[in-house]
Every structure is written in C-alpha cells, then in structure tokens.
Predict the structure of DUF485 domain-containing protein.
Amino acid sequence: MTDSHDSEHTGTRVAEDAHLAEETHLAEHDAAIARHKRLVLTAAAATFLLFMAFPVTTSFTGALDGVVHGIGIGYAAGLAVIVAPVLAAIAYRRWAARPGRGVRR
C-alpha cells in the first residue's frame, strides 16, 4: 500500500514540474517576442531612413538627375524606394510564417 504522504508529495512534484515547464515556455516566448521586436524595429528604422534619404538626395544633390535609356534616375530610384519595402515585407511575412514558427496565416 502507498502512504498518503507519498501521493501528496508526488502530486506536489508534478505541480512544481508543470509550473517550471510553464515558466520555461513563457521565458522562451518572451525571448521570441524580444527578437521579433528587434527585427521589426530595425526594419522600420531602415525603411524610414530609405524614405527620408530619397527626398533629401533628390532635393539637395544632383546625384539622381541623370537619364538612362530615356528613364530618369530619380524616377527609377523613387520606384525602388516604394517597391523595396513592399518586397521586404512580403519576404518577412513568408519567413515568419514558415512551418515550425508557430505563426498562423
């Protein structure tokens, strides 16, 4: 026969193990959120700098005044400034939603 104290001790140990596992899971989740925030904030800062560099470059320098095959370099750079963040967002979304990351579409 088992002693009632043994079953209480086992129940307490199981509860402690479950609590420890939950804390570990939460710590891993918090670390994943922190990594995600760093990535998103870095990408947002780079996008902001790209958007701000374009009008400054076109307004105060002649670097984008040229024409190549009838297309203005400024127009091509403007298109790149608009399209590049969209392509980067699509690539990020595909990366974040890959299997095993726990992100649902």
